Records
---
Amino acid sequence: MGIGARGGHNACVTAIETTAPGLPAEGTRARVERAALDLFTLRGFEQVTTDEVADAAGISRRTFFRYFATKADAVWGDFAAHVARLEELLAATDPAQPVLASVCAAYVEVNDYAVAELPLLRERMLLILTEPALLAHSQLRFAEVDRVVARYVAGRSGAAATDLVPRLVAATTRAAATTAFEAWLADQRSALGTHLRQAFAELTAGFPGLLR
């Protein structure tokens, strides 16, 4: 990721709104995300202002904040929908399937992206996992995932979501997923799904190669 710091500008404070009347909100949101990711990747997250993102997306500063509370939120996109989808997948799991296997399967499915989505996903995850300014923010986001998983495990096991085991399952499965993403980012020829399945297979088996 190139982090070439260049001076910012504020000309976009008075940017003319170029969004066509009637353009779906999701179209504007996607355009802002794309502009933000491109600028952050090119110059570094902290070197880009919110005004510059708005200018690049062809919208006003005010419109930017209609979609995102902060510029960090533009990196994450609609993460709430991602978390909600994970929760739906967990709720739909087969009760006969072991709890840990159910969580792992849900993680794999929620991260099953179309080929056309992978370049943007790679750009997004590189920023999230390597930009120092985003690492602290990521802990808040990942905590949302942990709560969903812990509640599911608690519901299946009869424990409280705050008990050790539900929290441990949430933390370890998320760590496995994050490690899989890091492996995928390090090898552009690899498949994300392959890394996810391998990481969860090791986790559910208790790292058999280390037990000898």
---
Amino acid sequence: MDALYRGLALDGRVRLFVLRLTETVREAARHVETRPTASAALGRAMAAAVLYAAGTKTADAIHLLIAGDGPLGRVVADAFRLPDGALGARGLVERPEIDLPPRSDGKLDVGGAVGRRGTLVVARELAGGPPYRGTAPLVSGEIGEDFAFYLLTSEQIPSAVGLGVLVAGDHTVEAAGGFWLHPLPGAEGEILEVLEARLREAPPVTTLLRRTPFPEAAAQALVGEAGHWETVEPVRFYCTCSEAKAARTLRLLGPKALVEEAARGRPLEVRCGFCRRRYTFPPAALRRLAEAVRSGAEEGRDET
């Protein structure tokens, strides 16, 4: 089961998040039909979004956009609280067919696919308040380093972030997840040096994800102790698309285009980019949408 583990370590001086996201990323990759390098980028972005959502209790939803100059195009990941208290996540990449040769160390070349130059955008939907949007330049395109740089420069949170996705020979996601460590206020100085030394010796994230017992074994490798775990939150793939949202997309066509589509006598289909669910609107529904758009425009003119 995918889950987010939140705890403290090193005498309560370090906040620790450890995330297993294998099933969630596997389902997202299946929907988007990604090749291995694209799957790795997708999974890392989704892991970053979930980690950040877990650490930002005041946000209803997190939207992460990575726009690099690599061939993969834009990478999008969303994370949000579900009514049952679990964390939901979804994601997509602009060009899921991209698959680059491995790097010299045998790892998937996520940085080459994403690009070394570009922007990381993080948007938070705040409960009962205006949305917040922060940006930071990409530093490597590997996503974990980029997310840590965003946290430091945009939110002044010095952090250690590790994200990883292991893709099997048949292109399915075998392991996915990550961790986020950051000193609590007042404990930054010496503890950062301790963390950096430990993390230099830590194994890859995908190795940590397969160690048992989880997450204690992962914490042991990261900070030298099993950690004190406060909460465990289930995580699952969840898409927020709906017929109403699909209809709002069609309304952007305007009444004239909607009437023309209806006159062709064929239904119009809207397909969700995250889960590939199809929403079909027959000609009668298109005409109703056109009338609704026209009525809304007339009401707007009456109010001016």
---
Amino acid sequence: MELVQLCYVSSINLKDLRLMAEFRNAMHRAATFFTEQHIHGVSFYANEHFLHCFEGEAESIDLIYQHILNHQDQNYRFCFLNNIEEFHFEAWQMKYVDRNGVVSIFCKKCGLNHFKPMSLTDQQIDELMQIVSVRTVSK
């Protein structure tokens, strides 16, 4: 089994209530898919911005990658796709960025006033994923 990790950033405009309902439905479908496909990782959200990190078998992660490519209406940037030896996250979780949490503190150290992952470099995102994965996996 070949395990890979895909990280990308995206943004969405949720000011329209119809879009908010579509977003909630999409998140529910994603959570179901992630459970069925044994996808691990995390999606951080704040200020209409996301930072996603998915881990799983290469075939399952490729389905996610292709899905993202097919939704060209989204604003996104792929950061990296790495082979991994083991999962860094116990399961997939959706998390809101806490103003005083580790993600916000990291963003401030990188010169950002708030969570805006599109402004982080791929190297910074990799560093942040290493920090949050240590806090997620019980050893």
---
Amino acid sequence: MKTSEHILQLFDNACNSYPGNIAFSGLGQELIYADLQRLSMDFARFLQSQGLQPGERIAMQMPNLLQYPIAIFGALRAGLVVVNTNPLYTPRELRHQFTDAGVSALVVVDGLLASTREVIAESGIRKVVVATPLELQPLLSEGHGGAVSASVSSVMAADNTIEWFNFDEALRRGADLPWQPVAIAAHDLAMLQYTGGTTGVAKGAMLTHANLVANRHQVVEHCAKIFREGQEITVCPLPLYHIYAFTVTCLAMVSRGCHSVLIANPRDLPSLVREIRPYPITGFVGINTLFNALLHNEEFRNLDLSSLNSTTSGGMALNTEIARAWKELTGIQIAEGYGLTETAPVVLSNPPGRVHPGTVGLAVPGTELKVIDEAGVDLGLEAVGELCVRGPQVMKGYWQRPEATAEVLSVDGWLRTGDMALIQTDGYVRIVDRKKDMIVVSGFNVYPNEVEDVACQHPQVVECAAIGVADEDSGEAVKLYVVAEPGGLNADELKTYLRTQLTGYKIPKFIEQIDALPKSNVGKILRRELR
């Protein structure tokens, strides 16, 4: 399963084979493969003209808009390394990621300028391209874009130390520029995908072209029935900055000449239904909380879903009752899978037609698995231990963190996941327990260390501990136990402070004041006693 291909070879082959097929749709617009190839080439020319060199990092901070695939494939063609960035990040989170990655350029949606601007100036970013959701329509019909939006022009006027461009302006400029081909190799770095790992300190997982292309091949071979060439129309409500959505949508679906329906805001269910309604949907990629919301939405329940032939779930545990209700409504069994940012991401998946509920499926082709005890001894089948993975999709390591890399990645290529699992005799795998302290809120990982570190900076907090508790809406929610300074704690005031420092899904839903935290004889906080 090792490959010498790079992403642009897959991309160009699909664009040349299916020029008239719809590649992506969203917000009432459609982007065919011919336009995707042309516009991403224009963007690559523009980036090259700005002096950005192969290997430099470019951050992408936007929801699921048509500009995202154009920008991604353009950046990769220019030899740049993509740094996917959550649009919901606070300035503190952005500052860490941009600085750690050494980002030179940023593509950002206009609605985020106010919160992002202060960080841009501090992070060494030289070029900023601002996307406006509906600016592409004239370019899709070979027309001309509009004027610079008021929000962008006001920022430009206020800060002349950074070069600012509108996305459509960058494309128009690029269309008239020469192109100097860039040599891209499979072992070249394609993405820095940030993850908390087991420590909660955000680290960039180095994913090469070979890692990502290999995982594309693994997924398509493993699930060939749901990747029929040029035929699939799959709903993508998961954000493309998340590695699972990126690999399935921008690699697997694109490489097969298929159509992905992008959902910019999956919480807006009426809008989601409007995006889906015009198309005979064949696939749906989601998480437990989204399936639950859709099952309770009358408009969705009334859609014609007769063409649906697959539904896949990842990111958080799938509730048995939700899986049953989804099958009752659609006739389709939700197939669970398992993956990590560090594995590009898919490791395991239930193959179409061979779904074993309660498991995360079989290893995708070319992937080795084992479970080990604390001493590193292989426990074999039908035993619970830490799941370890080896395969061509496993990351190169963590960006500029050799010590952290050595903690999880052995010299012979085995990645320690930190998750407890059991490999059955039939090859199907059950995840017994997630990383001991990690909290999964609506499919997003929350690391207690980060929440605690920020909370302890509040003057009312002496010390604290965060745990995950069951939550009907989000699967899990964050609960924070706090030992307060004399005078007590104002929980609402603490939450208000945390909202300025943390993304929304990391904010504790529950805050409880206690006299003392349980600790071991060496002073380590025992979160397990709080659960």
